Structure prediction request, 568 residues.
Amino acid sequence: MLSRDQVLYVARLARLELTDDEVERFSGELSKVLDHIEKISELGDLADVPPTSHVVEVENALRADEPRPSWPRDAILGSAPDAGQGGFRVPSPGAG
Amino acid sequence: MSEILELTAAQAGERVRSGDLDKGELWRAYRDRALADDLNAFTWVCEGDEPEAIDEGGPLGGVPIGIKDLFCTNGVPSQAGSKILEGYRPPYTATAVERLMAAGAPVLAKTNQDEFAMGSSTENSAYGPTLNPWDRTRVPGGSSGGSAAAVAAGTVPWSIGTDTGGSIRQPAALCGIVGLKPTYGAVSRYGMIAFASSLDQAGPFARDTTDAALLLGAMAGPDPCDSTSLGLPEPVRAPTATDLKGIRLGVPEELTGEGIEPGVLAAFSETLDLARQLGATVETMHLPHSPHGLAAYYLIAPAECSSNLARYDGVRYGLRTDGSDLLSMYTRTREQGFGAEVKRRVLIGTYALSSGYYDAYYGRAQKVRTLIARDFTQAWERFDFVVTPTAPGVAFELGAKTQDPLAMYLNDACTVPMSLAGIPAISIPNGLADGLPVGFQIAGPAFSENRILDAAHALEQAIGFDSRRAFA
Prediction:
């Protein structure tokens, strides 16, 4: 069971603001999902099983280290909600 | 139905190349149908004439294509079904789409999807749900529901989507068409808006296996921009097999019993009989860890998504909601921009990766992933393919599962194990149950796409399903 406080804690880690309704709703829904996920504890001791993070065996897929043009600055800044002086403009971290 | 629409993509391309069909006429026939679409299958349709730069002499013959919204396409809205990317027009095109265009397929439309590919019904799109052309009160499956519905409705000749836990195979099954998830690494992920990077793989939707093979051959290939991409070891051939002589099919007890609707199981059994008549041996077997696939998947995929979606912070692209300081700008932007399912998965993933829980959840899920992959490795010692129903049920009614995330997740029970193992699998139309399409899934070892396509072709001929039946 995921408590209200746990949901708020995880939301803060995820940089996600939640409404009161959402906190209520998600603590119920996510508890149900986590109950199902707990099934993997049924498999017992897995100390000898290596984890899989990548399914197909590839090692060190490297390309030649050759300089090539990057995206033009304007093309990238053109997608930004607020750009200025050749960069992304954001509110001050301490403005609040 | 006009004569053009009756043609498969391969047939249409052949006629264009031989000069019997004008590529502009072909483009306009589909463009006009796509513009008149009333299933909400598209998030964008090209209103103009066919792009000049496409060489119809290529293997795809100038036949227009639908592209899942999450493939970045230069200058074209690419929003991954999310409000947080509303209006985003990327400055570049995904490698898979570049390859399709280079092979002669002009991009006709972007197709609707669950937000960031998270969902099994396309109801999680910020741009409204897509309807199933077989029954407009029902979902087309998901997450690539727009791509599947459009092919089934004949508003595009073929399309591409992505499959993380079943997002190509399940909607293909629910819409009565062919959908193929290639081996992880066969197709470049560069320019695909990421969900779960160790699982995401692009693949084709088509009316038949021949069209699917053509698209796969054009899409697959190594890419210096994706260091996990490998391409395929041999060229993709047009499938020709008409029998299954000597083919050994394994039927996993764990994925063909409990939880599967009776009509789906009946259709599955009938096709097993057909397979025997075509010369295959059919034997029950076990994938002992597959019942844990869903739990492992719903840890691994959310964990990776919570990390991948950290990039949506209102700084470089998409939506920004102002806040009094930087932190509140981040949190408010994400509150406003993400839908409920994305929030759920970001929360689960963040929880599973958080201090004190990592080993018990994400770490353990990766070990279960190893066990599931080993089940398949052992299966290949005795079987050529593993076959299952693609989805446990037929298309469900809109809204039926939106209030119960776990019920929605159970749709992926038969497709998730192959995703975790990184192996290829196809869904082909397997007749109807309760008047709605069901799918037959064939999975094989890594890089066995040509053999899978051949087996699927033989069964497709024997089943004789007409995937044009839902054309409006």
Q: What stands out?
A: Chain B touches chain A through 73 residues (CB under 8 Å). Chain B is about 35% helix and 15% strand. Chain B has a mean pLDDT of 96. The CA atoms of residues 73 and 178 of chain B lie 24 Å apart.
